[in-house]
Amino acid sequence: MPPLLTQVARLSDGLPLVATMTANPGVPVTAKQQQEAKDILRSVTSQSPTKLSVVSGNNVFYYMTRDQLCFLTMTESSYPKRTAFLYLDEIADLILGELVKEFGNTWRSQVDQAARPFRFIHYDPLIQRKQRDYRDVRAAANNNNSKLNDDLSEIQSIMKKNIDEILNRGEKLDHVSSVSQELQQKSKDFKWGAKKLTWQARLQQYGPVVAGSSFVALVLYFKFFW
């Protein structure tokens, strides 16, 4: 099953610029899921994690930010996380490439000045074609195996949140980022503390030996050379 929903929004205010859904009668995208996608896009700020997965029932929303744009998709929970983020990475390359091709160096101002939703909806067929490439998860993984391996460690570290934590409880995604940064700092402090304790232990172990050797050397020096 390919990604069920894909949206590209302006990072500053969550304005949707492009959106597409996979036509599948068996797995329809509900109005509730579309609203959740909209709420997530509005919650993301420049201080938010650059990549995040958000669980919603049997589905998962994934988003990534790049060049002041937010790229979001929704998949079934069984869809591999690595493949979902690889898909978003390719969508970002595709959309940014089309913006540069259409507007050249002024593409950023075109995005900033967009006053209505879905200003670039004409990119929708391009996203649909890319979605079809990711219909077969195994084929997508084989075609991009090297990149999947390169991104493995990064993908494993991406935070996962529940949709209720972010939306129903009013949690800001920039707060999620600050918590993540705080944990990283605490980890660094712990490593430094561990190194300091190691040096102290070595000093206690070898300090007397070094001090004794220095004293003997000093005595011999004064005895034979002074």
Architecture overview:
It is a single chain. This protein has 226 residues and is of the alpha+beta class. The chain folds into two domains: 5-174, Longin domain (Beta-Lactamase, 2-Layer Sandwich), CATH 3.30.450.50; 177-225. The chain has eight helices and six strands. The chain has helices at 31-43, 81-103, 107-113, 124-133, 137-143, 145-156, 163-168, 173-224; strands at 5-10, 16-21, 51-56, 59-66, 69-76, 160-162. It has a six-stranded mixed sheet, with helices on both faces. A hairpin with a 5-residue loop joins strand 1 and strand 2 (16-21). It is globular, with a radius of gyration of 27 Å. The chain starts with a strand and ends with a helix. The model has no long low-confidence stretch (mean pLDDT 78). It comes from Grammatophora oceanica. Pfam families: Longin, Synaptobrevin. Residues 7-93 form the Longin domain. Belongs to the synaptobrevin family. InterPro entries: Longin-like_dom_sf, Longin_dom, Sec22, V_SNARE_CC.
